[in-house]
């Protein structure tokens, strides 16, 4: 009986350790091959809310690199996932290799929402100069950036 209790306790500990210690936030779906700035604007009146999938809010970016949603932002430390998509197929993104810097900016003084911007490329370290402040940060694809490869 004691052995069974120890096995159950070990199973619970392994299960707990396998789960992230932070709450789920967003699952980003980014068009396959996309390289450029991505812009997500939250709490936009009249925009569609984000759908839920496996406890994540689903943020499906279009080829323009932009999305607006009526859903409120969730600033802070949360668990996000990133995927390239093509049709119904998805491929997990390695954030350390593909995701570059990002920042937020408020919409205006009367708004409680904001736009979150970050960039992605096939090789974020190699392409970082293309995404510097001097190069600009317009939402959308960036010419010359390394596209993702399968």
Description:
- The structure is a single chain.
- The chain is α/β, with parallel strands linked by helices.
- It has one domain (23-135).
- The protein contains three helices and ten strands; from the N terminus they run H-E-E-E-E-E-E-E-H-E-E-H-E.
- It has helices at 2-18, 95-98, 124-127, and strands at 24-31, 36-41, 51-53, 56-60, 66-68, 79-86, 89-92, 99-106, 114-120, 140-141.
- It has a five-stranded mixed beta sheet with strand order 3-4-1-6-7, with no helix packed on it. Strands 2, 5, 8, 9 and 10 form a five-stranded mixed beta sheet that branches.
- The radius of gyration is 19 Å and the shape is globular.
In terms of DSSP E residues, the strand content is: 35-45%
Strand order, largest beta sheet: 3-4-1-6-7
Number of individual domains: 1
Q: What does the radius of gyration come to?
A: 19 Å
Helix content: 10-25%
Helix- and strand-based class?
alpha/beta
SSE pattern, N- to C-terminal: HEEEEEEEHEEHE
Low-confidence stretches: 2-18
How many individual β-strands?
10
* Coarse shape: globular
**What's the tally of helices?**
3
Determine the mean pLDDT. Answer: 81
How far is it from the N-terminal to the C-terminal residue, by CA?
51 Å
């Amino acid at each position: 009986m004691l052995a069974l209790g120890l096995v159950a306790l070990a199973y619970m500990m392994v299960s707990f350790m396998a789960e992230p210690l932070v709450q789920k936030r967003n699952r980003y779906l980014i068009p396959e091959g996309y390289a450029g700035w991505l812009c997500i604007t939250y709490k936009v009146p009249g925009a569609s809310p984000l759908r839920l999938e496996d406890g994540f809010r689903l943020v499906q970016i279009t080829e323009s690199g932009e999305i607006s949603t009526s859903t409120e932002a969730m600033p802070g430390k949360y668990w996000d996932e990133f995927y390239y998509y093509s049709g119904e197929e998805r491929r997990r993104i390695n954030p350390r290799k593909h995701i570059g810097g990002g920042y937020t900016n408020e919409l205006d003084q009367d708004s409680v929402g904001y736009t979150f911007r970050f960039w992605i490329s096939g090789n974020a370290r190699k392409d970082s100069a293309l995404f510097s402040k001097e190069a600009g940060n317009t939402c959308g694809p960036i010419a010359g950036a390394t596209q993702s490869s399968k």
